[in-house]
Design brief:
By secondary structure, the protein is mainly α. It has two domains: 21-111, Fumarate Reductase Iron-sulfur Protein, Chain B, domain 2; 117-162, no CATH class. Helices cover 42% and strands 0% of the residues. The chain has nine helices and no strands. It has helices at 21-28, 44-48, 59-67, 78-81, 87-91, 98-111, 117-129, 137-142, 154-162. 23% of the residues are buried.
């Protein structure tokens, strides 16, 4: 890959730290992770991935990094750019729940404060306003739409507090 996306970097020529067996064990406990060891790197997942030309590491390489216990997998943009189309999962001859594993990795990365700023900002906006995006008055006027109704965000805030969405924790 010649260019990287957002805050993520290329792994070309990278030297990884020692393997972490505990991280592999934790990854195996993710939803769908119990099948990690059956991956034989056929690359069918990567071949069908619609974002494969946009990421710094392919999905089959993510699977290999998990098996090897490389925590750097949390620094890949694949976990954030995945469109959750489930193509990788459907194409996997071993029936590995790849997309579900990516959801788990995204959660781990978020808890460690490794989420792209756009995700953190969207979560905060959802908490504050009940919306991911607040349209401006002129945008609605251009479309000849009524004003946006006010939302009671208290129920949303209760849910987000209960799920601890905005609580980023180090080394969890």
């Amino acid at each position: 890959m010649t260019e990287s996306w957002g805050q993520f970097k290329s792994f070309e020529g990278a030297k990884f730290k020692a393997l972490d067996a505990e991280f592999t064990k934790k990854s195996s406990q993710l939803l769908g992770g119990q099948d990690l060891t059956t991956c034989f790197q056929c690359t069918k997942c990567s071949a069908g991935c619609p974002v494969s030309d946009k990421v710094n590491i392919q999905i089959h390489e993510v699977m290999r990094m998990l098996l090897f216990g490389l925590k750097e997998v949390l620094e890949t943009d694949m976990i954030w750019l995945c469109t959750t189309c489930y193509t990788c999962q459907e194409r996997c001859p071993q029936g590995i729940d790849i997309t579900d594993i990516l959801f788990g990795l995204k959660n781990i990365a978020y808890q460690k404060g490794m989420a792209p700023s756009g995700y953190v900002g969207a979560a905060q906006s959802l908490f504050d306003t009940g919306r991911l995006y607040a349209p401006t008055e002129w945008e609605r006027e251009d479309l000849d739409l009524d004003d946006v109704p006010e939302l009671d965000v208290e129920e949303t805030k209760k849910m987000l507090k209960k799920t601890k969405l905005l609580e980023l924790q180090e080394d969890k």
